[in-house]
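SAMPLE LOG
Freezer: B-3
Tube label: C17
Construct: single chain, 373 aa
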Amino acid sequence: MRSAALAFALIALVSACQRGADTTEDVRPVRTLTVTPKATTALAEFAGEVRPRIETRAGFQIPGRVTQRLAEVGHNVKAGQALATIDAQDYRLAAEGAAAGLNAAKVDRDQQRADYQRFEELQRKGFISQAELDRRKAALDAAEARFLQAQASAQSSGNQAGYAVLRAPHDAVVIGVDAEVGQVVAAGQSVIRLARTGEMEVLIGIPEQQLALLKEASEVQVRLWSGGPPIVGRVRELAPVADPATRTFPARIALLDPPPNVALGMTATVTFATPIAQPIIAVPLQSLQAEGGVTHTWLFDPATQTVRRQRVQVVNAAGNEIVIGDGLKSGDIVVTAGVHQLKEGQKVRLLSEATQLAPAAPATVKPGPAKKG
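STRUCTURE (predicted):
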């Protein structure tokens, strides 16, 4: 009987202890930070292709049938190197005829010059009149003019024959072939496409709504899809009109001091950074919760050591942080760890002192439509 009474008393004591434990408030440990607005930059990224700074479509200055092609795609050529030839037989014959005409004109001029000297002597002795001497002078002037005409014709014909060999206008790499042996080409028609090897740039297309961002960009970086460190770029050219096919504005980004592994045709991403005058508020992603289409965070009250739920509006992403458009202000203390176990008005204790939100580098924001929290 005494044992039963003792057991009952122990059970009652344990139940009372459990009820007391249930009434003890759960104090959870959390980490916090103090919200501080900070400067940021807006980022815009565009994909593009590495292109030569100068691209030349080399063609013959005279028409003819292609007899040789001496360059292949990928060949590095030097200034003056032969790239292709056309049939020059007719041009050589024309040059020979012009040279013969020049010799004939030279002989006639020399004869007229000798005759004039003799008639000039006769006129001084009074054997011929001044009028006769003037006629001899006119004949000499005509012979001189015919000689100059024949000389220019011979030079032009010689140049025409020389144009039968297409030569590289500068050091370059062959990037395309537009004519083959046996093809008859017109004067100026593209035969070989050359890219000057000295300067390279990236060609991109800018949507019209982001033209202002590009014009105000303070920093341009280019990253190759093949990897490697970023390359500093500079906007060299922005087309004044949109491309009729893509409806974007072509822009050429010059590569400043590119590494040797950059090759023509590579794909690259061009990033523009523009400072934003208005500071932003950003918090870590883990400090936010989304429930029922609503995003909120937990604010810590130092006076009461409790937390309360605060609805926020998410604007965009800034690296590993989330940009807040509405709901937070400077000085608010936000819980950054332990948010999933909190309740409204719950007491908490800090695992560490509240820290300021001060990243090592300015945050960056990619422009995009605002999302309601």
